[in-house]
Every structure is written in C-alpha cells, then in structure tokens.
Design a protein that fits this description.
- With 124 residues, this protein is mainly β.
- It is 0% helix and 51% strand.
- It contains no helices and eleven strands.
- Strands 2, 4, 5, 6, 9, 10 and 11 form a seven-stranded mixed sheet that branches. The chain has a four-stranded antiparallel sheet with strand order 1-3-8-7, with no helix packed on it.
- The relative contact order is 0.32.
- The mean pLDDT is 95.
Length: 124
C-alpha cells in the first residue's frame, strides 16, 4: 500500500505557472505507475498525465500537451507536475494516483491509490 499527499496548488493568473508535488510513503514508490488527474466542479475526474515506473514514458491529455510536464524522482519518492501557460479551464482539484500495474493507463479505474487532492484556480 502507498499513501499519497499532494501539494503546490493555489491561485494563479492566466499565463502563470505552478508546480504540483505528490509525496509518497509506504511501499516502494518506484514500483508504481503514477498519474495526475483533475476534477472540475460538476465534471468527471479526468486524466491529465502519467508516466511509467522509471519516468521515461510520459502520456498527456491533448489539452495540456506542450504546457504541462510530468516527472518523478524515485530517490525522493515524489511525483511532480509542472504546469505552464495556465488557462482558466485548467481550474480543478488535482489528484495524484498510483497504479500497481506495469502498464501506463489513462483510465482512473486502473489506479489503485489516490491522494486527497490540491486545488488549482486560474483567474482570467
């Protein structure tokens, strides 16, 4: 089992940047595929980005490609999401998730553990 705690959210103006972190504890962090999801008010939780156990394979939803970057530091048991050129439509609660499978999935159903989320608000 792994415990996940997100941080780094906040209020930022459109065009600004934020860096989210997800600290993991428990079982070996490097054994999990990791992902970021987000949920806006009244909407389903959606996939944002994911990477494989080594952090070499990275996947993004189309709306954040070229603006967001996922990375991980297995020595520090931490997942990151660098978010640049933020837009009001990026406003949501952002969650990190860990999946025990060796395959990188974009479906939230394939992830086993979730953090509590961190709020990101982008003003226009």
């Amino acid at each position: 089992q792994v415990q996940l705690v997100e941080s780094g959210g906040g209020l930022v103006q459109a065009g600004g940047s934020l860096r989210l972190s997800c600290a993991a504890s428990g079982r070996t962090f490097s054994s999990y595929v990791m992902g970021w999801f987000r949920q806006a008010p009244g909407k389903e939780r959606e996939f944002v980005a994911a990477n494989d156990r080594n952090g070499l394979l990275k996947y993004y939803t189309d709306s954040v490609k070229g603006r967001f970057a996922i990375s991980r530091d297995n020595a520090k048991n931490t997942l990151y999401l660098q978010m640049n050129s933020l837009k009001p439509e990026d406003t949501a609660v952002y969650y990190c998730a860990a999946g025990a499978s060796s395959v990188v999935f974009t479906s939230k159903a394939q992830y086993d553990y979730w953090g509590q989320g961190t709020q990101v608000t982008v003003s226009s």
